[in-house]
Amino acid sequence: MSQPTPADLATRVRDGDLRFHELEDHADADVATAARRLLVAEATDADLDALGEYTFDAEAVHGSNIENTLGGVQVPVGVAGPVTIDGGARSGERYLPLATTEGALVASINRGCSAIEGAGGATARVTKSGMTRAPVFRVAGVAEAEALVAWVRDNEPALAEAAEATTSHGELLDVTPYVVGNNVFCRFRYDTKDAMGMNMATIATREACDVIEAETDASLVALSGNLCSDKKPAAINAVEGRGRSVVADATIPRAVVEERLHTTPEAIAEINTRKNLVGSAKAGALGFNAHVANAVAAMFLATGQDEAQVVEGANAITTAETTDDGDLYVSVSLASLEVGTVGGGTKLATQRASLEILGVAGGGDPAGANADALAESIAVCALAGELNLLAALGSRHLSSAHAELGR
């Protein structure tokens, strides 16, 4: 039987013979996607031809990455660097791929990288790792809540056995219970190796919850109780971390600050205190930084990360101070950077190409090393962005740079 054309499928949908979401059941994914474009273009009077220009395998992304596929959106990718990184997972010279439509962003980070290179590079380390999922249980009252907390603490090995039976890579690190009235939240934390691990943690926690319900009087209300906390601003992630907690720093010689950034260490340190620390505190912000979200978002898009988790990734604190020698010490600490180099969008060709630029595509050796190295690269990228923006404010060049490059 011959393959139906996009027009054939579109006609069947119009006639009510076929549902919009069933197109892939009757043709290959590229034909189904083209039929869907025809239907949406007709319904909205929009020109969708550009969405049909994509390089990924439509069959591969259908279901695993997206539903009701219409095509693809292209975002320009630039590169900053090279910048030398002394990392705990990987050391050496690296180019930083950035996907963005914001003019001046790549230039900004690139100038920060130049200053860091003038200092001999930056240092970065992952200080804590663990993906979390926090189900909420209902109990009769405080006494039953206390009993559940005690049971969980005494039976972590049994919970680990159930959770780890669902995955060949994940490892349960700990379970922390929290009581609020007749609610008990159990925050499970996993080592997910090179995967970002959200799906892994969810599936594993579901099995552990079955054990809790079977062995206690608690009733599971929701597999996610928002104490995880995923894709939302949350103080618990700022304090306890989620995904990777990673720190990057550099000491920039005074001469480099003056010659390449056209300001002084004292000016940058003062701006950071008054803007990033005092200003953020007055605003009630969870992150105390200038624009870490810019670097995180651009590298997330380039490397196939879950873009909604930029919320947690931008939960960062920037510090700057003048050293005893008159140089500039600057750091950025990202508390909850959720990244992976396997699974999700990392398997798409263009995103994998960006991971290959960084030398972190696929699983690392040892397991987790590639995701750690990616986290270190993003942290140094954020450091470069922070350094440049603070310097631009110090030299009063911010508006002129945006006028020249951002329009």
Key phrases:
alpha+beta; 10-stranded mixed beta sheet
Structure description:
The chain is α+β, with helices and mostly antiparallel strands and 407 residues long. It contains 15 helices and ten strands. Strands 1, 2, 3, 4, 5, 6, 7, 8, 9 and 10 form a ten-stranded mixed β-sheet that branches. Its EC number is 1.1.1.34.
Structural class: alpha+beta
Roughly how many Å apart are the termini? 53 Å
Give me the oligomer status.
single chain
Largest sheet: 10 strands, mixed
Low-pLDDT runs? none
Note the overall shape: globular
Helix content: 40-55%
> How large is the count of helical segments?
15
How much of the residues is beta strand, in percent? 15-25%
Give Rg in angstroms. 24 Å
Order of helices and strands: HHHEEHEEHHEEHEHEHHHHEEHHH
Q: Please, what is the average pLDDT? A: 95
Q: What is the total tally of β strands?
A: 10
Secondary-structure blueprint:
Elements: H1 6-14, H2 29-44, H3 58-61, E1 77-87, E2 92-99, H4 105-118, E3 122-133, E4 136-138, H5 142-154, H6 156-164, E5 171-180, E6 183-191, H7 198-215, E7 219-222, H8 235-240, E8 243-252, H9 254-260, H10 265-283, H11 292-303, H12 310-313, E9 316-322, E10 328-337, H13 349-358, H14 369-395, H15 398-405
Parallel strand pairs: 1-3
Antiparallel strand pairs: 1-2, 3-6, 3-8, 4-6, 4-7, 5-6, 8-10, 9-10
Helix pairs in contact: 1-2, 4-14, 6-7, 10-14, 11-14
At a glance:
With 407 residues, the protein is an alpha+beta fold. It is 43% helix and 21% strand.
